[in-house]
Amino acid sequence: MKKQVHKILEMADDELILGWRNSEWTGIAPLLEEDAAFASSAQNESGHARAWYELAARELDTTADELAFDRQPEEYRCSTLVQLRLVPDWGRTIARHCAYERADRARIEALKQSGDAEVAGLAAKIDREEAYHRMHAEMWFERLKDEPRFSAALEELEPLFDVREEHVPEFAALWEEMTMVRRSVAGATW
Amino acid sequence: MEAREQEFLDYVQGGGQVETDDWLPDEYRAKLIKFIEMHGNSELMGVLPEREWILRAPTLQRKLALTAKVQDEVGHSQLIYRVVEDLGKPREQCLDDLISGKSKFHNVFHYPTKTWGDVGVIAWLVDAAAIISQKALLKCSYAPYARIMKKICWEESFHILHGRDVVLTMMLGTNEQRELVQEALNRWWGPLMQFHGNPISRDEDPMYVWRIKSQGNEEARQQFLDGYVPQIWELGLTVPDPELRKGDDGVWEYTEPDWDELKHVVTGHGPKTAERLELRRTTRKETAWVRRAVLAEAA
Amino acid sequence: MGAACGVGGSGLIYEVFRQERKGQAFAHAGSVEAPNDEFAEAYAREQYGRRGESTALWIAPRDSLHEIEDFVDELGRNYHRVDGYPLKEKLGKARELAAKSADALSAGSG
After folding, report:
1. What's the pTM?
2. What is the mean pLDDT of residues B50-60?
3. Which of chain B's termini has less CB crowding within 10 Å, N or C?
């Protein structure tokens, strides 16, 4: 399990930050129906992040919230792909959505084979939930694939899933905002 | 009033309901569209002050609950605009009029949210004020609107629970946290008291006359005070109105709200009105290509 | 019901019917605007299922539905309605009659 904790945190951090970025579309998505649907993706990402943090927290003797919010910016292991602020570009947003879903699927498959029953079990559950998101991403992919700005974005963004060594400049501001309420009264219950 | 209109009026005043393809008097249709449209606008504009706090939520649980709440509100605006569209005004025109300032949205969504205290107070009290109005719409003479109100009220009840939980947690926390709640309440009390509108007698209120609403403004406000002031006081919070008291006759007395402020705000001069409409305008422009790419083929 | 297309040349309107619990009837829940069946499914699922309030949904393009509202009964077909069967009076008389016959029988056998 210890080896896998790094992988799990990587995944949790990706889902947390991607959930953030997807929430930035709430209220301003291109179509009202899509606004509600996309907010489900954001919610599920945060929900999956929570599940992974809880699993890692048991291993590391801490809590999910502490892992999610109380680490220093340098300690987050999320990819460049999820950190980018893409509003108001829907083409790039969907391109990232598609690129992320594909890469994440491979990652989840690997975790489903884990020797650790808890990890494998959670990966299987999340895989089943992801089915709907993959359908949604596919639906948009079909719709936008002939738009040049979309295919260009896909090409540009896909490799960024594996870029994790450094954070993009926006990340510092993101962390600042994400943790401001929590830091305002240290140790409080919210 | 011509005979057919009078017949319609008698019918709705007797509790009758109408459907989309029934004959509707012009005045009824116009007032209905305006009222329902304002509701749709309000749900959509309400999302903007709240969504910032999804990003800042101090726990994962709160982040999830707040995302779900805000998502409901987007969903409500979808339900409501669909009703307006079936009455003859297209969604895109509603959005045009919202952005240009031609149509209105409720006062509370023109104000800033400043702290996590606001998050609790809004979900608890603003949503409570809204649910009182919405319950009065369950018997709306226009049946398609009455029907969606059922779903809306059901979802709003979750929001109030969430708001109350946020507030109670803070009230049980540190002094700083309790201060956040009180300070937020101090700022939101004015807009809350204005929320149900000026105390026009219900027989002079066209919305009541046509039975679009089933209660008058003052009735709604009294209901709000009756339900929620005790809840506020029992937590040790103070309401920033020294005149607020319940009379022996059961009627709440309070300092007369600033009706000029209300008018000023809803006509587009609230502290955050311009900024929020601007955000909507620019994103709408930037995403126009998406609507063209996705919807054009369907027609 | 309203126009079949989003007014203004945009998407199609789909009506959504939801079933709250297995075994119950599907009831009309509302409508969504979407470019095609696939999007309509995604959006209906979202609007009418995200809080677990439905076990199942049916969706159909609005223009596939036919509305029927004019029912004619000029001659008053009371045999189709409950008020066409005034049983109370007849039942009262039949009971009376049965009671009299029972009395007569027992009187006769006395």
Report:
1. 0.91
2. 94
3. N
